[in-house]
Amino acid sequence: MKIALIADLHGNLPATQAVAADIEKRGADAIWCLGDMVGKGPSSVETFDWALENCSVILRGNWDEGIAFRQFAENDQYYYDQLGEARMKKLGELPLEHHAWLSGRHVRLIHGRPIMPQLQGTYEPEQDLAWLFDPDFDTVGYGDIHHAGLRALHRGRLLFSLGSVGNSIRLPMAQYAMLSCRPGREKADFDLQFIYLNYDAERAVRHARQSPGMPHRQAYIQEVTTGVYGRAFNQAAEK
Question: Which residues of 23-55 are buried (b: 16+ CB within 10 A; e: fewer)?
Fold first, then answer.
């Protein structure tokens, strides 16, 4: 079985379309989305609707939750107006976790936050990551940190982060992972491949420039073109 694992689409339609085409080309049997379909980019409606139509598992990320429950800044009215009440209700009802037995491994999938009180990277001290595996998981995967990582821990445990489809940091490419495995508790190969795709980032920039009222526009453009986190930009200049 081949499962495409995606996260952090963040309203970037060209990146989402590139990943969707690549997933189809590689013949995935299922797509599991670990959250944050919306926010940041200008096309939250399109990326969220695509996930609803194509993903058999969809988790709620921190941006999904923040927008659904109106937890963020006042200028996020832009996203509320785009999505409308029905989509925001669906966002707020999405589950926070998905658990599965795959190739004999007990897998826990989350977005990151809001399950993580504070975002943790795969490189942090092992004792600080141990809680993620409680009570009996041996594999944990998540998104949220917007760059991919894989780490083998003691006692046969695996920790991985997916990278971001639409808002990758460090490497400005559309990122996702393909998991080849066997469903169930029988031990088998567990093959996790990280995939990095070029996509039409200039089209993503055009979408942002053509979207009236988009908050933090220049920060988003910096992120999709350079991979450098942009929210430290002069906010007054972005409005």
Answer: beeeebeebbbbbbbbbbbbbbbbbbebbeebb
Q: What is the pLDDT of residues 186-213, one digit of tens each?
A: 999 999 999 999 999 999 999 999 999 9
Identify whether 135 is preceded by a cis peptide bond (ω within 30 of 0). Answer: yes
**pLDDT of amino acid 114:** 95
Question: Average pLDDT for residues 94-100, to the nearest whole number?
Answer: 98
Residue with tokens 């996930």: 51
| Phi then psi dihedrals of residue 204, to 5 deg | -60, -40
**Nearest partner of 165 among 30, 28, 40, 70, judged by Cα:** 40
Pairwise CA distance, residues 10 & 170, whole Å: 16
Instruction: Give Cα 99 to chain centroid, integer Å.
Output: 17
**How far is it, in rounded angstroms, from Cα 77 to Cα 86?**
15
Delineate the domains of the chain, giving CATH numbers in brackets.
Answer: 2-238 (3.60.21.10)
Q: What is the pLDDT of residue 167?
A: 97
How much is the pTM?
0.95
